[in-house]
Design a protein that fits this description.
This protein has 234 residues and is of the alpha/beta class. It contains ten helices and eight strands.
Length: 234
């Protein structure tokens, strides 16, 4: 049984690769997950863990790689502004699938059931006292709040993806640095890390680890970045 210490030690100073494909993306195949192939490449490249969405991908990637998996479910419910593991149903499903870490939206946005994110975290910890929780947040206030609620890891995943955060097309290095300095739990730098030099700079902020996704595992996004640069250079 892999422990929290095992996972944190394995990822320290490293790059976790996010292998995700949701409906309407080119690598999403309805009949069968193919993300395990992307995870195979990620493992060969040396990643110590995989972040993925959907129950089927958690199962397939764990079976393929044997690596620790940070699992989440993306689903949009009426009345919920967040869409990453928004309710207990998704938590239950991720736990049953063997997700080693459960990631959830811990922004302070509206939740359709009327609960606060603080109450939701407390409910999860009561039901699953040994669970390892990763809080996906978008700003400093949300990161501090999640830390005080007792999550195990805070990720800067949502910075630039909420209405009230800057839409710059680069990592939020300042947020990474502030949270790494002001909390005593692992901070994971995630979001808009497009290039290797940005990955290096993100790790230099003092975060525990980083997550890189689209820059590695989303071929459409990668191709569009090249096309955009070419058009701009004409």
């Amino acid at each position: 049984m892999i422990t929290k210490k095992d996972i944190l030690d394995a990822i320290h100073g490293k790059m976790i690769i996010s292998c995700q494909a949701v409906e309407d993306e080119p690598l999403y195949v309805e009949e069968k997950s193919i993300m395990y192939l992307m995870a195979r490449a990620a493992k060969q490249a040396g990643t110590p863990a995989i972040r993925t969405s959907s129950i089927r991908d958690v199962i397939a990637i764990k079976e393929e790689t044997g690596l620790p998996v940070i699992g989440l479910v993306k689903i949009q419910y009426p009345g919920y502004e967040g869409y990453i593991t928004p309710t207990m149903k998704e938590v239950d499903d991720l736990v049953a699938a063997g997700s080693d870490v459960v990631a959830l939206d811990c922004t302070l946005r509206k939740r359709g059931d009327g609960t606060t994110v603080n109450e939701f975290i407390a409910q999860i910890k009561e039901k699953y006292p040994d669970i390892i929780l990763m809080a996906d947040i978008s700003n400093y206030e949300e990161g501090i709040n999640a830390w005080k609620c007792g999550v195990d890891i805070v990720g800067t995943t949502m910075s630039g993806y909420t209405d009230y955060t800057s839409k710059k097309d680069e990592p939020d290095y300042e947020l990474m640095e502030r949270l790494a300095k002001d909390t005593d739990i692992p901070i994971i730098g995630e979001g808009k890390i497009h290039y290797p030099d940005q990955a290096v700079k993100a790790l230099q902020t003092g975060v525990w680890a980083i997550v890189v996704g689209g820059a590695i595992t989303r071929p459409l996004e990668i191709a569009q970045r090249f096309q955009k640069a070419i058009e701009a250079g004409k």
